[in-house]
Design goal:
The protein is α+β, with helices and mostly antiparallel strands. Among the domains are: about 45 residues, Zn-finger domain of Sec23/24 (SH3 type barrels), CATH 2.30.30.380; about 220 residues, Rossmann fold (3-Layer(aba) Sandwich); about 120 residues, Severin (3-Layer(aba) Sandwich). The chain is about 25% helix and about 15% strand. The chain contains 30 helices and 34 strands. Strands 8, 10, 14, 22, 24, 25, 27 and 28 form an 8-stranded mixed beta sheet that branches. Strands 18-17-16-15-19-20-21 form a 7-stranded mixed beta sheet, with helices on both faces. The protein has a 5-stranded mixed beta sheet with strand order 31-30-32-33-34. A hairpin with a 4-residue loop joins strand 32 and strand 33. Helix 17 runs parallel beside helix 24, helix 20 runs parallel beside helix 22 and helix 27 packs across helix 28. The radius of gyration is 30 Å and the shape is globular. It starts with a strand and ends with a helix. The N terminus is likely disordered.
């Protein structure tokens, strides 16, 4: 078949050398801003190639092999020995060509030959039907930011502003086309750009860069991305397919607009007055008055406006607008994948760099189709081309790992479906890998060669099928395990506990503290649990299955277990030393006894309405008693014929099976009741006079004494018991009192080890948020009694795991319960050299029990291309995955007490320096000046994420937050997927304004860079989302806009001082109120959690400093007694300067 001809995407920046005459004119006479803008437009019209151009620009000089990177140019003085301030003036995207010494407005972008890596295996397409996506939120698509005024041109040499592309010339007729495979089932062929020559490069020198310097999934240096986006899909008669050429690029491509410019300088987070709590749980009564902000914690005069203040470091060093922007990268990636197809992205063999997770979330009505490798919703490696030698990985210091998310939220919404294969389970006899699309069948289909260990195994007679002329099985499209990257098998008895299959129905137990402070929680549960139970989640793979069983208990200094079936009688356990199960009918079937459940919850609040409750409570024995009660219960057996095997209560357990399920704990008091000898799990107060003593330890070398979970062995052992003996996960809903302390660092081990990792914290007015989070948690419950095993190609193996799990052996990861948000990261280690012409296969297999009680095996496969050059490694790196794993490593070291905060920060920055130094040393063009900071295109926003990591509360939190808040932040970051870790490390900041100057009722929002430099007084408000809560920051313009205030807070509010801060944001029928609530709902839907909304008025509330402390691009004033370190509170620009300085030291 003749290859198709496609139009090659232009690079993200195509700055060719400007005419000498223009350069001379610029040198002779300085230009005004308007003249600069005019010449910039003329220059771009002459030099930029239109995005509809089919072909690359002219080739570079043969002696300088180009590389796609981001470069910061040296100053006009050209002094390499001077200060870094004089050496770094502007940033541009450049293929390794040094910037001209006396021209800060131009750079040269050269594009080399496209190189492909041939594949030994064909690509497969998903022949299984995929359900259509549902409708999404009305405001889920972010509108483009407003265009800049011509006189605000500060973003040098970056064609990201919309107006720069409006007058481009038509594409030249001599554009060169690239040949791509015409069919996805053909073997990939090498793709080259005609009229260009392949330069000779050394062994460690990367191949020439792609013609496209955008994200790698569209690059043309290997054949796979072109297959993915331009190849036609072979249609099968039995399964619906998406339209052909769904990824054909449009004839005209317009990059997103660059947000407008601004200025400012960040203040640090203010330490909250102790009566107002800490940022993660700013209580409602902080709105009743303006809390004080001690000077030592970065207080500011409310009259000082944060808007349009030029950072001092930007004036002397680098222009902040010239730095790589996270917001811009997100917008560009979203624009690149804009399509009317129901399919956003299709995986291929080998896998290529997928869309950013933000693009996937913004396009929630589109799906990712399985084309032979698992969806990026399930697996995201840090690199998509694996070096054949460990020496290359050690040279670059890039972490070689992968994020594995066995289940995804879209499965709950039925947007995606992982098919259950009807086939028997076939595995390799040597490595025990499951059948996958990459195995090769030989001997007429009677044997197959394992894609991981290359061992040859006989095919069972019942699994045999003939081969076609290409060596593929004739039934390949009818078996998911032969054509898809993700699929499931129904497990046989050998995969079940003691060989007992389908034995127990999963259970959900609700345990509520019964003290004086927790009475409101009990009343809310009693009023809402009936409806929640009626809407219990069902197995998405088996909708007709039975719902989970239900149990309820309360506790204070004693334990009350309720026999709901028998009139709700309470069995009280007073002996806390050896808890036991008082009855064997604890669990209730909601299908049979719903009337008794309703009656029980109607009477529950009245039972304790007039009783004086205890002020102290327990916790550990509660969990033990609940676990024992589920073990001996006779109501949760699916097969009633084996009920007689469970005849005893107490500590005697059945050896035939274990229960599976979850315990939901609603807790509000530190468990201090009793003594250490007679009350297991009792926690001691870690302070003498007040909890404020603990705050002073945060950020110091002594903070591990209050944040390390290793200081209490009981809850670690209890969490392990939940996994090994009872397969029951734990989720914590915490309601600490004002300025309270619950020791989240220790209690959190219950959730981390059991696999859920779910901790929710609420303060005061928690009712709505509490119920939202509870419903989200119940709907995300997906699997129980899980065992995860990762198998890899010969030569590499799993080495370290990070996340929520318990591991009894180095090779297995166990979880009592897994949610759709649960994910685990793994780092790989080399055992031997890899084969150059073979794919690197990684297979994740999780054995689990579904909500219906079925035992299943879910498989996720991914095949990665191998490479021999460092350049391929950098071009195919995934920045988001790399940052996520680096953050987990840092948090894990802090929690275990292996390193101090300063040592952790130094280790993070040192690794980033190694990554960038290796790129500069091995991939930059020879002769490039040391005065230029060169960043890999795929990792150009890595420094910004690292800047956020160094400032986030999980790492840098000091006395301005509480110990529980820091422990909570560490646990969240330790197990967060990319969609969450992104917003932790770089909060989302939206500007709110009317769509036109006439101030219509319609508001709009646009995401801007997370810096005070971007705040303008013209905006009405700003909304900041940091992953823990949302802040609505009303500017002085918004405070004086009566129409905006009336629409948002009601007709009686015509001044910001009349806003009732003690009340939540009202939900009115006005356009302003509905718009704001849709935006907040969008955020909650993306994060699968509720958000507390805090209102801050400019110039009125001193909590303004809390808002400004999350502007991570700015300098942070250190609030703790930190050691003298150059890494404390660095701004984004300062961090780049520091990285550049250290890179130069290493190069010298």
């Amino acid at each position: 078949m003749d290859p198709q001809v496609r139009q090659t995407n232009p690079p993200m920046m195509m700055n060719y050398p400007q005419p000498t005459q223009w350069t001379q004119q610029q040198q002779q006479q300085p230009m005004s801003p308007n003249q600069q803008y005019y010449h910039q437009q003329q220059y771009q019209q002459q030099q930029f190639v239109d995005n509809s151009c089919s072909g690359p620009p002219p080739p570079p000089p043969p002696s300088l092999p180009p590389q796609s990177n981001t470069m910061v140019a040296k100053s006009q003085s050209g002094d390499h020995t001077g200060s870094l301030t004089n050496q770094m003036t502007n940033l541009s995207l450049n293929n390794g060509q040094p910037l001209q010494q006396n021209d800060t407005l131009k750079s040269s972008l050269q594009n080399g030959q496209n190189v492909s890596s041939s594949s030994s295996l064909p690509s497969y397409t998903n022949q299984y039907p995929t359900p259509n996506s549902g409708a999404t939120y009305a405001d889920s698509q972010m509108p483009p930011p407003p265009t800049m005024a011509p006189n605000s041109l500060n973003y040098i040499n970056q064609p990201s502003k919309q107006q720069e592309f409006q007058h481009q010339p038509p594409p030249p007729q001599s554009a060169v086309a690239a040949a791509v495979p015409g069919n996805w089932n053909q073997n990939p062929i090498k793709t080259t750009i005609q009229q260009q020559q392949q330069p000779v490069v050394p062994s460690l020198q990367p191949p020439t860069s792609s013609a496209a310097t955008g994200y790698q999934s569209n690059n043309a240096y290997d054949g796979q991305p072109q297959q993915q986006q331009n190849g036609s899909l072979p249609l099968q008669p039995n399964y619906p397919q998406p339209s052909q050429n769904m990824y054909q690029q449009p004839n005209s491509y317009q990059p997103p607009q660059q947000p407008p410019m601004g200025g400012g300088h960040q203040q640090s987070m203010a330490s909250m007055n102790h009566q107002y709590g800490s940022p993660y749980g700013m209580p409602t009564n902080r709105y009743g008055s303006t809390p004080t902000s001690p000077t030592g914690y970065g207080s500011m005069n409310p009259s000082q406006s944060p808007f349009n203040q030029q950072p001092q470091q930007a004036q002397n060093k680098l222009d902040p607008d010239a730095m790589p922007s996270v917001v811009q990268v997100i917008l560009e990636d979203k624009t690149k994948y804009e399509t009317n197809s129901p399919v956003l992205f299709t995986t291929a063999i080998p896998a290529s760099v997928p869309p950013l997770v933000t693009t996937v979330m913004e396009n929630g009505n589109q799906i990712i189709q399985d084309g032979g490798c698992a969806s990026p919703l399930f697996v995201r490696p840090t690199i998509y081309q694996v070096p054949i030698s460990e020496d290359i990985i050690k040279t670059t210091d890039i972490p070689f790992g992968m994020l594995i998310k066995p289940f995804d939220e879209q499965e709950v919404d039925r947007k995606i479906y992982v098919p259950i294969s009807p086939s028997e389970i076939v595995r390799c006899n040597r490595c025990k890998a499951y059948m996958n699309p990459y195995n090769r069948f030989i001997d007429g289909g009677r044997r197959f060669q394992c894609s991981l260990c290359h061992h040859v195994t006989e095919v069972p007679q019942t699994y045999f099928a003939n081969l076609d002329h290409t060596g593929q099985r004739l039934d390949r499209q009818q078996r998911p395990e032969l054509c898809l990257g993700s699929y499931e098998f129904l497990a046989t008895e050998e995969y079940c506990h003691n060989g007992v299959q389908n034995n127990r129905r999963p259970h959900l137990i609700f345990a509520c503290e019964l003290t004086e402070t927790s009475k409101p929680i009990l009343n809310i549960l009693a009023a809402n649990l009936v409806n929640i139970i009626k809407n219990f989640p069902r197995d998405s793979g088996n909708p007709e299955s039975l719902p989970p069983m239900f149990g309820f208990l309360t506790y204070n200094s004693k334990i009350q277990i309720y026999d709901i079936v028998n009139n709700g009688h309470a069995h009280v356990i007073c002996d806390l030393t050896t808890p036991f199960a008082p009855l064997n009918t604890f669990l209730v079937d909601p299908l049979i006894h719903m009337d008794k459940i309703e009656k029980f919850f109607e009477q529950l609040p009245q039972l304790y309405a007039n009783e004086e409750m205890d002020m102290q409570t327990i916790l550990g024995p509660v969990i033990e008693a609940a676990l024992m009660s589920t073990q001996v219960d006779v109501n949760n057996w699916i097969n009633k014929n084996i009920v007689n095997k469970v005849v005893n209560t107490g500590n005697q357990q059945s050896n035939d099976s274990i229960p599976v399920g979850k315990i939901y704990l609603f807790h509000s008091t530190l468990p201090t009741y009793g003594s250490d000898s007679d009350t297991p799990g009792r926690l001691k107060q870690k302070w003498t006079n007040s909890v404020d003593e603990l705050r002073k330890l945060l950020g110091s070398d002594k903070e591990k004494t209050i944040l390390s979970p290793l200081t209490n062995k009981y809850y670690i052992e209890l969490g392990q018991k939940c996994v090994a003996d009872y397969a029951t996960g734990v989720e914590l809903f915490l309601f600490p009192p004002l300025n309270g302390f619950l020791d989240v660092a220790i209690l959190g081990e219950l959730t981390r080890l059991s696999g859920t990792g779910s901790i929710f914290k609420f303060y005061n007015d928690f009712s709505d948020a509490f119920l939202i989070d509870l419903k989200y948690s119940l709907s995300s419950s997906f699997a129980f009694e899980c065992v995860l095993k990762i198998r890899t190609s010969t030569g590499i193996r799993p080495n370290d795991y990070y996340g929520y799990f318990y591991s009894r052996s180095p090779s297995d990861v166990e979880c009592a319960a897994i949610n759709t948000t649960t994910n685990i990261s793994v780092e790989f280690k080399y055992d031997d050299k890899l084969t150059e012409d073979e794919h690197v296969v990684i297979q994740s297999a999780i054995l689990y029990t579904s909500l219906s009680g079925q035992r299943r095996v879910r498989i996720h496969n991914i095949a990665l291309a191998s490479c021999t050059q460092i350049g391929d490694l950098y071009r195919n790196a995934c920045c988001d995955s790399i940052v996520n794993i680096l953050a987990r490593i840092a948090v894990n070291q802090l929690r275990n007490g292996d390193k101090t905060i300063q040592q952790t920060k130094e280790a993070i920055v040192s690794r980033v320096i190694n990554i960038l130094t290796a790129y500069r040393k091995h991939c930059a063009q020879p002769g490039t000046s040391l005065g230029q900071l060169i960043l890999p295109e795929a990792l150009k926003i890595l420094p910004m994420y690292i800047c956020g990591l160094l400032k986030c509360d999980a790492i840098d939190g000091g006395p301005e937050i509480s110990p529980d808040d820091k422990a909570y932040a560490q646990l969240k970051l330790l197990g967060s997927f990319i969609s969450s870790s992104q917003v932790f490390l770089y909060p989302k900041l939206y500007r709110i304004e009317y769509e036109s100057e006439s101030e219509t009722d319609t508001l709009k929002y646009s995401q801007i860079r997370c810096s005070a430099y971007k705040l303008t007084s013209a905006a009405l408000a700003y909304v900041l989302e940091n992953g823990f809560y949302v802040m609505l920051y009303i500017t002085s313009n918004g405070c004086n806009n009566v129409k905006f205030l009336n629409g948002l807070f009601g007709p009686n509010v015509d001044s910001a001082t009349k806003i009732k801060m003690e009340l939540p944001l009202p939900n009115l029928l006005t356009n302003e109120s509905q718009f704001m609530h849709r935006l907040f709902k969008k955020m909650e839907t993306e994060r699968k959690c509720s958000y507390k909304i805090f209102i801050i008025r400019q110039g009125i509330d001193k909590t303004e400093t809390v808002f400004r402390s999350f502007l991570y691009e700015d300098q942070k004033i250190v609030t703790r007694q930190a050691a003298d370190s150059k890494l404390e509170g660095l701004s984004y620009v300062d961090l780049l300067c520091h990285l550049h300085k250290e890179i130069r030291v290493q190069l010298n």
